[in-house]
Specification:
Order of helices and strands: HHEHEHEHEH
Bound molecules: flavin mononucleotide
Number of domains: 1
Shape: globular
Strand content: 15-25%
Strand order of the largest sheet: 1-2-4-3
Helix content: 25-40%
């Protein structure tokens, strides 16, 4: 039987080229809502999400993220910050929220990607007015894909990364 959630996971790809097409407001809102609804350790929700849609601000983001200059051409982007004092839990929680947002976006045909990483986006934190209690984990550019997405993943074979019951026992 078809499983839409699995299909979304199977076909989700890192999308780095975006069509010149804005995101409808309700679609953009649903994406950040997917982040807000995500579970976190002890339900502390130690995060903040900034939805960026203005072109000048997207260009600024593109200039600040060394590994994500293409954010400048996205229809929108979400800056994902976590409370620094929550440490690894904060990173784990915010990472899970990113996956929720990427999958929710994909459900509406919107491509996305993860750019940057914790401890390396201080320039983004300062530029976008996030208080010092936060660290920016990542910026997630969003946009309808410029090209048709093939969805062919390059992954290690299942048998190499999954065991049954004990390490090394193949899953039949
Ligand atoms: C934690 C994490 C950090 C990433 N950082 C970047 C990044 O800074 N820039 C970028 O273009 N892609 C980044 N990516 C995207 C990965 O390179 C990409 O998902 C991976 O190569 C697999 O490709 P696929 O998602 O299209 O299957 C990141 C992905 C993850 C999960």
């Amino acid at each position: 039987m078809a499983n839409e959630v699995f299909e979304a996971v199977r076909t989700l790809m890192a999308i780095r080229q975006y069509a010149d097409r804005p995101l409808p407001a309700d679609v953009a809102r649903r994406i950040v809502e997917a982040g807000q609804l995500t579970a976190s350790a002890s339900n502390i929700q130690p995060w903040h999400f900034i939805l960026v849609r203005e072109r000048d601000a997207l260009r600024k983001l593109g200039s600040l993220i060394r590994t994500g200059p293409y954010t400048a051409n996205a229809a929108a982007a979400v800056i994902v910050a976590y409370e620094k004092e929550k440490g690894e839990f904060g990173i784990s929680d915010a990472s899970r929220a990113i996956q929720s947002m990427m999958l929710a976006a994909w459900g509406d045909g919107v491509g996305s990607n993860w750019t940057g990483f914790a401890g390396r986006l201080e320039n983004v934190r300062v530029e976008f007015g996030l208080p010092d209690v936060y660290d920016v984990l990542a910026v997630v550019p969003l946009g309808y894909p410029k090209q048709k997405v093939i969805g062919k993943k390059k992954r290690k074979p299942l048998g190499q990364v999954v065991s049954a019951e004990r390490f090394g026992t193949p899953l039949s």
